[in-house]
Automatic annotation (TrEMBL), chain B:
Homodimer which associates with NirD. Residues 628-749 form the Nitrite/sulphite reductase 4Fe-4S domain. Residues 420-467 form the BFD-like [2Fe-2S]-binding domain. GO terms for molecular function: 2 iron, 2 sulfur cluster binding; 4 iron, 4 sulfur cluster binding; flavin adenine dinucleotide binding; heme binding; metal ion binding; NADP binding; nitrite reductase activity. Siroheme binds at C681. Its cofactor is siroheme; [2Fe-2S] cluster; [4Fe-4S] cluster; FAD. Keywords: 2Fe-2S, 4Fe-4S, FAD, Flavoprotein, Heme, Iron, Iron-sulfur, Metal-binding, Nitrate assimilation, Oxidoreductase. This is Nitrite reductase (NAD(P)H).
Amino acid sequence: MSPARTAPMSSEELKWTAVCKLGDILPGTGVCALVEGRHVAVFRIGDSGIHAIDNIDPRSGASVLSRGLVGNLGEHIVVASPLYKNHFDLRTGECLEAPEHSVRAHHVRVNGDDVLIALA
Amino acid sequence: MKIVLVGHGMVGHKFLEELRQLQTPGAEVTVLCEEPRVAYDRVHLSEFFAGKTAEDLSLVAPGFFAEAGFTLRLGSRAAAIDRRARTVTTQDGVTLPYDKLVLATGSYPFVPPVKGSERDQCFVYRTIEDLEAMKAAGAISRKGVVVGGGLLGLECAKALRDLGLETHVVEFAPRLMAVQVDDEGGRILRSKIEALGVQVHTERNTVEITDGRSARHRMVFADGTHLETDMIVFSAGIRPRDELARQNALAVGARGGIAIDDHCRTSDAAILAIGECAAWRDQTFGLVAPGYEMARIAARQLAGDAQAAFGGADMSTKLKLMGVDVASIGDAHGRTPGCRSFRYADECKQVYKKIVVSADGKHLLGAVLVGNADEYGTLLQMALNRIALPADPEFLILPSSDGKAKPGLGADALPDSAQICSCNNVSKGQICAAVGEGASTIGEIKACTKAGATCGGCVPLVTQVMKAEMARLGLSVNNHLCEHFPYSRQELYHLVRVGEIRSFEDLLARHGQGLGCDICKPTAASIFASCWNDFVLKGELATLQDSNDYFLGNIQKDGTYSVVPRMPGGEVTPEGLIAVGQVAKKYGLYTKITGGQRVDLFGARVEQLPAIWEELIAAGFESGHAYGKALRTVKSCVGSTWCRYGVDDSVGLAIELENRYKGLRAPHKIKFGVSGCTRECAEAQGKDIGIIATERGWNLYVCGNGGMKPRHAELIAADLDKAGLVRLIDRFLMFYVRTADRLQRTSTWRDNLEGGLDYLKAVLIDDSLGICSELEQQMQHVVDTYQCEWKTAITDPEVRKRFRTFINDPRADQRIVFVEERGQIRPARAEERPIVENAEVEA
Ligand code: SRM
Ligand SMILES: Cc1cc2nc3c(=O)[nH]c(=O)nc-3n(C[C@H](O)[C@H](O)[C@H](O)COP(=O)(O)OP(=O)(O)OC[C@H]3O[C@@H](n4cnc5c(N)ncnc54)[C@H](O)[C@@H]3O)c2cc1C
Ligand code: SF4
Ligand code: FES
């Protein structure tokens, strides 16, 4: 999987799925949502809002990234995989320690109280 | 060139190491080692009583002889030398030719010619065999006497006391440590030693040892008094082993010892002598540092460096005897003509300090420090490097009551050539070079320069030099936790405690920056838990927990979790075991007995955890904290209840302790072991806290480790009653919680602790920092506020809600696939899994 994103589409072309209410995610943590059969980790971070990346940790193949600790490393807002502690940028999906293990980052939108995801 | 070394002791081995490093071409080396084992660290011999084994004390790196190509003959004593034929013959008749012979035969303990000194249960203190015999005798003795109140005698007295004996020291001279300390210092030293429960008898000349009435022996003194005892250890000085020299008409010193010149050559140029057996200018040296220097000189001589010369040695010493600091530097007795001295004595705190300065008042000649030797490093360097004294030299030893800083000697004031570690001849320049190459902890400095690795006396100064150099290179001594907090874990702990900070948000706002990360968040969570002990998943605290703590289970490679119910002391009822089995069966969990004496159930999916725990709790179980940096298990042996050797109830104590400390969060996990007798079936000496029952109570061992780098625990206190034991463990654990780095087990913490075990004893037993009652209170708070995290979690609907795989779908994670093996499940390997992309759920 590469961090390269598909060409940006306009908001209307994206297929949005409402996954949960904002209040369902404890600020500073993540949850896993099933979006069109794909495991997506959705994080809620202080001021920078909602982020979504794949939930599957490429190194182990386990569906766990939403259970990692979030924070920042320099400019990057990251989650640390709970298994081997490698860090993923929440905005791009890039794996900072091993770029070949990067994941896809997905589109997010908050509509009123609803959290919506569109696969990238 | 054929080289034969006679004697493989400390100095002999140093010689071999040097020789190997110099890579002398064509050297064929044979070593005659009289003892049944290779060289070991005699300086730390007493640690044998604290649980160190002969292997721990060994100075020889594995594979040394094979790699160096040296031949070792163990248990082989040189019996005769033929100087004309240049051969050595061993006691079992082997004759070896030599081109160069190196004698490193050390010393033997002097036993005064007293009638009865050859009786059973009379010992000397020199070899591992001596200590083994003493240990065996100690087990069947109540009272012990050390003859000789010098440096070694006092160390030996400590060993007897640690063996649990009523201990006496009998000294011929009017004071203890007569060589190093003056009258007034000797007086203070004596009262300190007596306060520690060792009885001192000075001016006693033993004339005879006979049968005793109340004990095995009666020692009769010249003044008509007597003392009864079960065992006696002679420590009345040492004599050089120069018998080979005497047999072969080699010159010996006026007071014995094989005479050597500045190049360590004896009167026969083909024979060299080094270490305690050698006499240089009629002087022998009973310390290891001068011996090491001779070893270096001799090796360089043989490698062809004819210039290498021995220039005498500084006999300054600093030691800690039973927690009492004693140091002596240079001309401690003020024998230099015209010298003058300054003295300071505090009979309340039992501190005595004296400095001897030159007639012109410009230089320090000597010093005596008793009770507190903090200034040792500074004073020694001033004396050795002839650094000009400040105008009021008395301030060097006066306590700084007026807030005026002492005219300390910054490491900067030392020349690069200043020798910082005398045991290993390491200069300030070498330490600075090591810092330049990246060493930034005392452990790294030890590893690459050996500074501080022998007697340890120089460690404070080495640390000071290291820090000063790091500061000079602009390498701030960086112990910052991470980019979000410019503090060490210990500092953060104090900020939390003092500022009564209870949330990460508050901590970040007051002392940090950014959002935090997977380093500082769990660290903060652990500190909050140690200080305030709130439920770990309460509100914001939940967001700080590592995945394991967030789900109260250990995450496995496939994203499932393990379930470990607590079984205190490893004890479990049949009903309990059945209940665990039923849960495992119902949820299809893989079941295994752990190395920690309990049962682990693997393969639980996150959404199954609350239901599983609900059933376990109903059956009377609690969280085992297998996931936390917290107390794990207290391993026990079956003890006196069943075992025919047990002397106390180890299971009962283990359960009590596990229940007391369960839930305690710490910088890393903590494990205990409790054994019912010295057979040690619970392997307590491999645990952070180890307890072994004795006839008189409990021995407490600390800082052991069994994992990546096994380390034997050390005896910190003996024969404690249960209340005293618990009090000391409270203090120990809280002090560890306060001061350790993140993810530092007690063993590494201990290895990095300046002052080592003696410092720990001073803080935790003598209360030198005055914090013991605070530590106890803090522990009591943790004990009083314990809750089973799983019980709280399953009864709180908000928390319970978080245990689910998908936020928007009730199904389980289809990617988790098990296969069967030996009748149980295990995670499927990649090639055994159905082919699934990221998506696999077809609706
Ligand atoms: C389950 C168990 C192995 C077993 O099947 O027997 C085990 C399993 C793990 N051990 Fe262990 N250790 C287990 C007993 C031990 C022991 C034996 C003992 O406790 O007597 C040791 C050596 C003793 C010691 O700690 O000194 C041990 C030394 C380690 C170490 C090395 C620690 C060290 O400081 O040297 C690690 C790594 C670490 O903690 O950083 C480790 C780490 C782990 C981890 C947590 C690794 C991980 O992150 O996945 C394993 C996961 C446990 C789980 O999922 O529940 N485990 N581990 C044992 C659980 C004991 C229990 O009931 O809680
Ligand atoms: C309990 C204790 C504590 C000490 N504490 C300190 C301290 O804190 N600081 C300090 O500086 N020093 C201390 N010392 C002193 C230090 O241990 C010695 O200075 C050092 O060991 C001397 O080394 P060596 O090689 O000369 O002698 P040793 O280490 O005694 O080695 C000599 C070896 O030669 C062997 N040998 C003798 N004759 C023959 C022969 N004919 N053939 C073959 N082998 C032979 C002996 O068996 C022995 O193994 C302490 C000593 C003891 C006993
Ligand atoms: S390395 Fe050891 S402790 Fe870690 S999972 Fe494997 S067996 Fe268990
Ligand atoms: S002075 Fe002994 S280890 Fe440094």
